[in-house]
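Crash report, auto-generated. Payload:
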Amino acid sequence: MPAASTRLSVAPRRSVGWPVPLAWRNLAARRGRFLRSASAIGFAVLLMLVQLGFQRAFFDSALAIPRRLDGSLFIIDAAKYRFATSEPFSSHLIEAARQVPGVASASPLYAGWFDFFWQNPYDHKRFVVQALGVDPDRPVFRWPALAPLIPRLKAHGTVLVDRRARRFLGMTGSAEKSEINGKPVRIVGSFALGPDFQNDGTVIMSVDTFKELYPPAGVETGVIRLAPGAHAAVVRTALREALPRSVSVLGKPGIVRLEKNFQARVSSAGPIFTIGTAMGFAVGMLIAYQIVYTELSETLPQYATLKAIGYGTGRLVRIVLEQAFMTALAGYLIAVVSGIAIFRLVGGLALLPLQMTPQLALEGLGLTLGISLLSAMLAVRRLIAADPAEVL
Amino acid sequence: MRSKPFFLAWRILAHDKARTGLAIAGIFIAILLVFVEIGLYVAIPRGGLLLYHRLRFDLLMTSRDYEYVTQPGEFPAQLLDRARAVPEVARATPLYFGSAKWKSLAGGVEPDLFVIGFPPTGGIFSVAGIESRIGALEKPDTVLMDSATRPMFGPLTKGRRVEIAGRKETIAGKYRLGTGFLGLGVALASAENFVRLFPGRGVGDANIGLLRLRSGADPELAAAELRARLGGEVRIFTRPQLEAHEIAYWTIRTSVGLIFGSGLVVSLVVGIMIVFQTLSIEIGRRLGEFAMLKAIGYADGALAAVVLGMSLAIVLIAFVPATGAALLVYRLIRTQTLLPAAMSELQLAAVLGAALAMAAVSAGLALSGLGRANPAELIKRGQRF
Amino acid sequence: MAAPALSQPVVRLDGVGYAYGRGKAANQVLYDLSTEIEAGQLIVLTGPSGSGKTTLLTLIGALRRPQDGRIEVLGRDLAGLRPRERTALRRRIGFIFQTHNLFDALSAYENVRMAMQLGTWRRREMRRRGIEILSRLGLGSRADEGPGALLVGECQRVAVARALVNRPPLVLADEPTAALDRESRGNVVALLRETVAAQGSTVLMVTHDRRIIETADRLIEMDDGRIVADARPRERLYPAEAERG
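Recovered output after restart:
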């Protein structure tokens, strides 16, 4: 790396108003190196963003249905360990729930995850899909795009399909008929949901159609809406007393948490991406440390001189930290921009809800700052220990 | 002048232990990162193929609708009789798959259990723990449990009674195979017990059929023969075909391959970048010393050997602990997730090869810079580091 | 302009000894130095290499601590100083090192300004003062160029400007003119002389330059870690004249 050619004579600056921005000037004087350092950190941050983004996408896809349930309280079988497992209970309990004061409506949600075989209308291959059965007069979803389609399910043998399902299911076209479990069904509309780790696609139908295609052993979830003015905790207790111990009564957060905990703890998704993120963090720490270390190696005599002429160590450490932060932030911006592009690409291909949400971006920023701070604090020990006398 | 370039390279590195240590740490992390990501990526199809790798068969017979191991479809078991009629086929065994609710007698959650039913004779699984307990499976309402079954199923102690699909069963023991992606828990049962657990199913409908050929028989030829005789009612896979099919399913059909693949690609880029950057800096830092060597008459060839020696030394010294750390992380992954992450010779060789290649490339690029410059320039350049 | 007389010396050394390393590897470079340096003088420190001159400067500049003896600088005993006091004291000492150690990324003016930030300049005065002192050293027109564009000698002059810009009461200089051409040398020496005359500062300079030695108010010679001679240079160089004068 030749010495003189990268350093041009400095343009006139009027730093009259505030102290010399040494950190900034150090970076601006060697733009090529600044970009390289920032990119290096950016890659590590990108690695973490990708891992966290995927983890979030896995969770979001698995939580898509639970999150869209429209109710204040939910009844599930007490033995249910996650949302997407068959643990039906008797529909009589839904009737019983309706009688409880404070309950405005109790709607059943039927579901099957291993028992509904959808036939691709184009090549006639059969695949297992997630099937949801709802009462068209008592819809259970808070889902604006779906709401106008629900009444169509009142007709016999009709289904709505997931147009974001995996392509081999053939739900994305304009076919109007197909078969489920060997019985003919009519396709009367589509919604956009997407697959998750377990299901390749979803069909929604009325309870009657559901029972015809595969007689269920019971209801999967009871969705309770409260009467105006009713207190959730009170109604919950009342329901708890009215219903047998074989079922549980949960709030909305509880039912979401049921699946979320499963994904985080029991399924593999949680730990895998956490390991990946941790690796990214380790890499980031190393890269950031190397950057500060190298920078100090070059300028240690200069900083030691400043110490000798009366700069306190704290002030110098602050300058070095500033420089480290600025580099890390630049890297972060690079990572976010690249991340958005990658998410769009991979999300589209993988049909996962990969998104650079504000929360994800903030998490990435936090991790970036963490990396920067921790590694810089380790690296500045050299600066703190620097002996001005050695300068001579 | 006696020139021992590699010895000299070592001396140069040992001179500034702190900096060299930092460089080694950098390469260590980069190699570890690549190991972990490759391990994860490769573990996916490995998890999907886990069961097949432990079954003894030369050809696999499945239904027409076979998707992958847990969506195999069904076909009439009589077709296995017709398969036996083919002279090359020595043995045809049906396997039955089912999913049932597991209930601990003490109550609690009811996870889904994957049950594999098979005629309780030896030579089907290549797992010692199963072979030695075939006799136990013949007892009514008895199952063997995979030791990798998740903790939520409770302890898998021999003699424990549990409820599977509403029926009381006794655990006859554990075996080590791995649940792969079959489910959170896997149990083995004899065909008779299987039918008791799943009364809707008879032994008439098998999910997969394991075909073993006579010694010396060619799997491809036998497969062709079977396809000719059995027509479109079933699919016949040779082992390589089966591997390819399952791998394709996991990497292409599900999003998993794409996701882990993207993670792998980003990691590779990061890893390569770190190795390259670190080695360039380390060599660059010593440009002054190389200038001196050149000035006192060191031949270019010997100088090249020194630079190459330095790069290789740093990479190799970092490689050993990185491999050790990777083994630990693989173990962590295996115990914490369903993924059978493990080190294979191929992974080891690939990463080592890549690392050494990067070392050579970095050295080469650095040397091309060295070759042209005269010693004074080099000293000046060296001060930049 | 006569310098106001200080009631106490600027520097007082009392039995000062210093060794590098510890124990068996200890290398004693200064032995039992005792002397006083009054304000308002330009004192030259000279002697063969290895005689401990630079080490002595670093001790006086509060960059090192002596193993033996006591050092008082600008009225403060160096031994009892806490870090913040040490830093404050260093601000009152202008140190010119052998290597300029300027920041590449900053212009000449900005490098000088780094020192000014430690002083009590009002912001508006900084630019004016910075350009002024650089001009005195012949670099006024190049104030906004960086060390990359300047020759080593010019960089060294910037370092001199940095050391003197705050008008410190004590200036320690280690071979400040070694890399300079004749004209620049003259500028630096003139500036140092002016600092002594105008502000009553004290300049303690290590040099071998005969011409500077001639103009010094006092010449301290060191050899092997001890002061071997301490006199007015005129007396030393031209002892006959001194006797006559």
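Post-recovery validation: The mean pLDDT of chain B is 88.
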